[in-house]
């Protein structure tokens, strides 16, 4: 299994990255430095996480300490709901670059589809892409209807749709739709925020392979061509989560895990996702910042 996937615009993206949701600036800086040291080549953040500055610090320090260059890391960030719209996206993105201490990102996503605005936001992303300040652009949390709207009205095809995805939330319809259109599917909360790790069925499978449940889930992602970005603030777990390229799940076990789907989306977010309620998101931003 190759460690990277080629996106529909030819850019190569690592199949495994580290996510930093729910980590503060200091923690993000530390996790990014550990991640770089232990072989991660992709980092995923967002303005909404309130830790772009920490990621920027960790990135600058981690690259210097490991004698690496900016091009060695695939950096993703996302446009905050409150910044959506054409001009406001362009403006906000410049600040995001400053906080991240870089002059480009590898991937820029619309974080959530704010109805009535996401098309204007997409046009701003297209401009940023054409200017070379984002090597690839894409979306997050877009259902099929909204993906269709982007494909119909946009002039650049999204490279990525990043969604909640784990054994209890498999989004089969959206994944199939994306696959047919060569839009790469990426998982947020691949471990279900940690909740899926206690599943007795997965524990049994893990024992068979002498791996942890986290490693089984992340390997299952890879074998289904899903890009995955687990989060951890513990160095030993960050290391553990990279050790997924040295074994293979049998077809039977992949199929078995495929039967675990029960559409168990993160409850708070599912409201926004289905009803497009950006007001709710404001509360969440307070919560995480
Ligand atoms: P922590 O950050 O304290 O290590 P997700 O990526 O689905 O959001 O899940 C992240 C959650 O899973 C975090 O609570 C993280 O805890 C935990 N986690 C990440 N990797 C592992 C692991 N290998 N073993 C156990 N828990 C893990």
UniProtKB/TrEMBL annotation:
Residues 83-110 form a coiled coil. SUPFAM superfamilies: NAD(P)-linked oxidoreductase. It comes from the Bacteria. Gene3D superfamilies: NADP-dependent oxidoreductase domain. InterPro entries: AKR, Aldo/ket_reductase_CS, NAD(P)_OxRdtase_dom_sf, NADP_OxRdtase_dom. Residues 16-259 form the NADP-dependent oxidoreductase domain. The record marks 78 as: Lowers pKa of active site Tyr. Substrate binds at residue 111. Pfam families: Aldo_ket_red. The active site is at residue 49. GO terms for molecular function: oxidoreductase activity, acting on the CH-OH group of donors, NAD or NADP as acceptor. The keyword NADP applies. Keywords: Coiled coil, NADP, Oxidoreductase. Belongs to the aldo/keto reductase family. This is MFS transporter.
């Amino acid at each position: 299994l190759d460690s990277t996937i080629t996106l529909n615009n030819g850019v190569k993206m690592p199949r495994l990255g580290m996510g930093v949701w729910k980590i503060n600036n200091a923690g993000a800086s530390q996790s990014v430095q550990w991640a770089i040291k232990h072989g991660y080549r992709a980092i995923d953040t967002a303005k909404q996480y309130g830790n772009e500055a920490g990621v920027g610090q960790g990135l600058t320090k981690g690259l210097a300490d490991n004698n690496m260059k900016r091009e060695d890391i695939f950096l993703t960030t996302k446009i905050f709901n409150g910044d959506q719209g054409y001009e406001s996206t362009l403006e906000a993105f410049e600040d995001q670059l400053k906080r991240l201490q870089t002059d480009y990102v590898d991937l820029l996503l619309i974080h959530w589809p704010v109805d009535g605005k996401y098309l204007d936001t997409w046009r701003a992303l297209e401009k940023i892409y054409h200017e070379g300040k984002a090597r690839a652009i894409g979306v997050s949390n877009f259902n099929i209807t909204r993906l269709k709207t982007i494909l119909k009205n946009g002039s650049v095809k999204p490279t990525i749709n990043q969604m909640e995805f784990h054994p209890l939330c498999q989004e089969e319809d959206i994944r199939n739709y994306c696959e047919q259109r060569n839009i790469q599917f990426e998982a947020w909360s691949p471990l279900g925020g940690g909740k899926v790790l206690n599943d007795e069925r997965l524990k049994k499978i893990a024992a068979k392979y002498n791996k942890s449940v986290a490693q089984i889930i992340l390997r299952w992602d890879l074998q289904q061509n899903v890009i995955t970005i687990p989060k951890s603030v513990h160095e030993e777990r960050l290391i553990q989560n990279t050790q997924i390229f040295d074994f293979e799940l049998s077809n039977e076990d992949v199929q078995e895990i495929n039967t675990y789907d029960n559409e168990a989306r993160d409850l708070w977010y599912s409201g926004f996702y289905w009803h497009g309620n950006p007001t709710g998101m404001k509360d969440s931003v307070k919560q995480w910042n």
